[in-house]
Design a protein that fits this description.
The chain has about 180 residues and is an alpha+beta fold. It has six helices and nine strands, in the order H-H-E-H-H-E-E-E-E-E-E-E-E-H-H.
């Protein structure tokens, strides 16, 4: 298998896995959390360049572990993990960034090209609990991993369209482009 085909198959498997994580029943608790999060202030966060993040050995799709690593291993103890949401395509995607000396930045590399700044909603109500050896994010008693959906039915409809495109052979990176 060629490198391009191997990369496409990897992205396809990753996309299918990600959509499965977002396929959960809608609840009143999720709707209430979304209503509260929509009232929280958004900030703009800078993402460190991918080459710097690779040098730092930060891993893609591991934002919570990357931010926690920065906090725990900062010799000056100035780094602090901030967890909140990265608004994306009708979802509030749970995301962690780092604050140091008043600067807030992202230390998680992306697997695709993207702007070096993005909107982020810090959520002071998120708490991390240790469960069976894993850190689990809660917001007022609700598990919020992988995030929250503004419109769960629409989210499900769009996911079905994108997954259908991927299964039909479309490049996974292009399958997520509108129209849906």
């Amino acid at each position: 298998m060629g490198e391009a085909k191997r990369k496409k198959e990897h992205l396809k498997a990753l996309a299918i896995k990600q959509f499965a994580r977002w396929d959960f029943p809608a609840t009143d608790a999720e709707a209430q959390a979304v209503a509260e999060i929509q009232k929280l202030p958004e900030i703009v966060v800078k993402r460190y360049p991918n080459d710097a993040l690779r040098y730092m050995r930060m891993k893609p799709s591991e934002c919570h572990a990357n931010a926690r690593f920065m906090e725990v291993n900062d010799p000056e103890k100035k780094c602090r993990q901030i967890t909140g949401y990265w608004p994306q395509a009708g979802n509030f995607v749970l995301h962690s960034v780092v604050e140091r000396d008043g600067e807030i930045f992202c230390v998680t590399p992306l697997m695709t090209d993207a702007p070096d700044h993005f909107s982020f909603i810090p959520d002071p109500d998120i708490e991390w609990r240790q469960e069976n050896g894993f850190n689990v994010p809660y917001r007022k008693g609700l598990v919020v991993e992988p995030g929250l959906r503004i419109d769960p039915a629409e989210n499900k409809r769009i996911a079905k369209v994108i997954l259908g495109r991927i299964e039909a052979g479309m490049d996974p990176l292009k399958a997520g482009e509108p129209p849906f």
